Amino acid sequence: MILRDALTSELLFIRQQRVAAYSEYADALPEDHWNALKQSILSEADLQPGVEIIVAEIAGEIVGSVVLFPPKIKAYEGFGDALDHSEIRMLAVAPTAQGKGVASSLVTECMNRTKNKGHRSIGLHTGEFMANAIKLYKQFGFQRIPEHDFEPANDGIIVKAFRLDF
Predict the structure, then answer these.
(1) Residue 55 sits in a domain of what CATH number?
(2) Of 1, 44, 79, 81, which is least packed with CB atoms within 10 Å of its CB?
(3) By C-alpha distance, which of 70, 64, 104 is closest to 88?
């Protein structure tokens, strides 16, 4: 597996792959919440200065991606705060590549890049319905920071905040 920065020419594909990866939740969520999630993962928040879009490649094919926001940059349009730590967002793995360590590799890459910049913590938000994602993040040692949770669709579904201190 090769981890590298995304090329501008790959952004449309990456955004479409994100939607495909998150589509497993479409039927389980209220329509307004799914639309808010879809809008969020298709947003151009990842084009802000200092934001890194990282892809995972297997056999020349992009099989996953993640966005790494630097500290003090608002990672969510209209929600959340600009936090004092780096933020992992939009971790997505192609359905055909799930279970191959892609997500773990992308999270590890974000952690390494954050450490290499001298930052002492990294965070993320994930929907409370994303049980596998929460399990993965807890395996890495991420801890809940509920004071940074938010509710994007005003439907009782919480986007939970986590942080890992190095």
Answers:
(1) 3.40.630.30
(2) 44
(3) 70
